[in-house]
Amino acid sequence: MDTPILHALSRAVDAGRVDACAEFWARVEAVGAPLIEPDPDDPGQRLVTFVWRDDPAGPAGDVLALLHTFTDRDRHAGDLTPHLLRRVPGTDVRAITHRLPAGLRASYQFFVGTGSRADTLRTDRAAWLGVLDAAVPDPYNHAPTLAARDGRNPSSVLALPDAPAQPWARRRPGIPRGPREDTTVDGRRVSVLLPPAMGRQPCRVVVLLDGEVWGSVLSIGDTLDNLHADGRIPPTVALLVDTMGRERRMADLTCSEPFVDWLADVLLPWAGERYGVSTDPAHTVLAGQSAGGLTAAFGAFHRPDRFGNALSQSGSFWWPDPDETNDGPEWLTRRFAATERLPIRFHLEVGLLEWMLVAENRRLRDVLRERGYPLTYTEFDGGHDYACWRGGLAVGLVGLLSAGG
């Protein structure tokens, strides 16, 4: 797809203007990338052009634009060709344009192929992991990057004009900072984020799953410090629980009663004794994403005596009966439908691009509403993406932690 900006570049090159490329890249450097233009056919969309500058000393074979969820979906379908950048003839510019929702937020990277096109377009797991290991952020994107784990490069973030604001995501200078303590509880690694001031009353408490991502990689402590500084949450202690190991994650985050009981009967009493956090379930939030989002809702269902608030982002509510009795998918949704209302509040959100999760989250929403649960529910323009979750997590915490008296 050609856009007005690319048309103008092509016309200038065709007219023999020797400074055409230099002017194009000067514009990119000034406004930042990707390049965003109105969609003449739909005011709810934008034309978004991702650009890559070839190195004249060693031009790339092919370049892929890896736009979170969009590229993943095509990779699962076995075809990455819609994500190949094309060279603008006579220039050092490679570009690809997507028509995207005006409210989209998504992380993205570039993969610069050095082999054949066939190798670059491979979609098997081994090849895809190699792509992710080598992918790099956009050097022309002016926004702060999204950090990665496991030695991978950070991602750039695209936030189109109507994307929800994320006013608490970034570290602010000059505000009080809460201390962090890294420890081990009963053999499991936990990072504890304390508020800048503990206050007179017992602190509220958030148990946040996948703590090794939220703590060391994404610095959720900055968000909590900002929320405290703005008075949006009462003094709150966050317990970031490590759950990312593959075998551990499957064991812990698939409606596991032993894991939830450990959180309720070991972790929370430990935090109460050491930090004086509240024992009131109305002041306790269990939060997670994906399988962690499933576990947040299950944890409140299983132990409402300790978890009175569930914050689920992109919850994997398709999960079947954990006892493997072939009772079908969406086991937890059916349990809520069959049970009288429990003393739980919910904050649920899911990305409209999460094609495997939207319908399942909507069905849980409908069941909870029918049962009369206090519930906030959001659908955002985005995918299974920490670039979206870090903003939604802050919003959910404000809603749940400021409620309950």
Taken as a percent bin, the fraction of beta residues is 15-25%
- The Rg value, from CA coordinates, equals 23 Å
By DSSP, the count of extended strands is 15
**Measured distance between first and last alpha carbons:** 54 Å
Shape: elongated
Architecture (CATH level 2) name of the largest domain: 3-Layer(aba) Sandwich
Walk me through what this model shows.
This protein is 33% helix and 22% strand. With 405 residues, the chain is an alpha/beta fold. It folds into two domains: 156 residues, Immunoglobulin-like, CATH 2.60.40; 223 residues, 3-Layer(aba) Sandwich (Rossmann fold). The model has no long low-confidence stretch (mean pLDDT 94). The strands form three sheets. The protein has an eight-stranded mixed beta sheet with strand order 8-9-11-10-12-13-14-15, sandwiched between helices. A four-stranded antiparallel beta sheet has the order 1-2-5-4, covered by helices on one side. It has 13 helices and 15 strands.
